[in-house]
Amino acid sequence: MPAAPTHPPDPHADLAAEQAHLARARDELTRMREHTLGLTADGGDALAGEALAQTLWLRAKALQDDPGTTLFFGRLDTAEDALYIGRRHVSDAEGDPVVVDWRAGVSTPFYRATPTDPMGVQRRRRFGVEDGQITALEDEWLGTGEPGESGGSGILAREIERPRIGPMRDIVATIQPEQDEIVRADVATTLCVQGAPGTGKTAVGLHRAAWLLYAYRARLARSGVLVVGPNRAFLEHVGAVLPSLGEITVRHTTVEELVADATGATVRSTDSTQVARLKGESRMAEVLRAALWGQVSSPTEALVVPRGSRRWRVPAYQVQEMVEELRTRGVGYAAARAMLHQRLAHAVMVAMERSGDAPDDRVQDSVARCAPVKAYVKDLWPQVKPAAVLARLLSTGEHLADDQRPMVWERPPRSATSARWSAADLVLLDELTDLVDRTPSLGHVVLDEAQDLSPMQLRAVGRRASTGSLTVLGDLAQGTTPWSTTSWEESLHHLGKELSAGSTHLEELVRGFRVPSSVIEFAARLLPSMAPDLAPPESVRSNPGRLDVVQVEDPVEGAVRAVQQAAAHEGSVGVVVPDTWVGRVGDALSGAGVGHEVMDGEHADDTLRLRVFLVPATVAKGLEFDQVVVVEPAAIAAAEPDERTGLRRLYVVLTRAVSGLTVVHTDPLPDALAVSSAGPTSA
Fold this sequence. Notes:
This protein is an alpha/beta fold.
């Protein structure tokens, strides 16, 4: 590679040279992919061959070029060399790097080098990109004695503020130093990231997953990485980020899908807010444990095992000691039950030895499997199904405290198979399933919008990382469930990670890169009323954005006009409405000839043919659009069960805008948002 220049560059010549390097990089990537496709999956046997073929297919897919992006977005010049920094590694036929993966250690200075700490870098170059082609370049001189002054990057600012349509894209070219510190944290570290709107916490969590898969590939390829989001629309929105970084094996799911897959149960009923809150409380873990282990009875008779002409006896008190010891071992119900067979067989074998026999291990295994032992254990320690245990608990109220009685079914089902489970019930079933047979742990779990999960939901996620680590993302000010957490320390405890432990850290992101100042300052007026302990977020955008607050006679007609005006701007338009208004507003948009797609939280159209998206307020969390129209804020807030939750929901929907926000209302705004004029207000 060329050495770093020692004189001011010719911008036109440099641009042409960089465009040529991009063309070369694309040629080399094509060569690498064709080489991979030409390999034969000969693993020595059918099973190994199939595994190798799958590996080669994934490798070829990861090497597929995306013509809409460039293979590199920056360059680092040192005294010895120049490195092109990109989304993936590209090498030439001799194995020399043409593009260096952004996750490699040598790429770190691209994100962290400063004039006061250049980290060996003389020049940092950023590239302006349009339709996958390099159209501009910008140099930042970090060494001494070189031309130019280090300052803010215009290309960086334009990339951060660039309008977007469709799913979230990666931020690999714009990662800030405080974000990079989080991304590159060790795999053994659990990080909790408190992030205000627009600080990029979701993107940071996804890039952390990509970095971990690069830095700890062998380890995490075996144990797996999982991303857990609040709903399917959110997952569709962020689903393109990891594939754009070459990672296509990471599973995306919601808590609801996670527990449904694990339990095999289906949601067929809905709980009241009171009952859902009770079922989500952490004390339910002990209730379920008591209900499950209450199936084990105390022995009243000795175990008698006939063998040959002899009858071997294990007294009841000795069996009781075994049962108590197994209860305290911390293993699952089923594993402890299997151990009891062996404990009883061992006691018989000891009795045989005392009588002068010399039994071996085969004798113990034979006794453990014999009919008398099986029948004795069946009566003492029965096999159970989690659904049957939960159905009995909710039918009888056994083990429940007085204030938990509202959970008891008014009309119990005839059997567990006919039970109509709620979403909260599936979380309880998942807890019971884990108590019976331990849930396997993954290597790393990324949990977004964690502030909205109940303690029992957090436990369900946490046990998937019992021997691994987590990246926990959220914002306490955006907690919009009645059981949303009040502290990250509490949430981490339920996840099985303690802030007091050295391997768990809390990080805070307050600098907003996506939400403009006019929008975030307007929304932040709500903070003193619903999250007074949080500092207001700070927008670092150079463009303050657009804010219009418009009072109208008919909110639906006003919404249509606002959408038409917003669509005149570049980028996507999100129309956030009270959930019950989706049909009305959708019909009005269609009647006005405004094509749109509805994001309902369960299904999102990944073809993304249109620019306008109609979003129920309860689905807006985690999404962002260039222009946002919020319709009737008072109705959005009033739809929630209490004032605090309503204001938090409103805070969420008001902070979805990247460029401009229009608030359309007929009813008075909440006091904290009230403006002096009833007409349009722009900032």
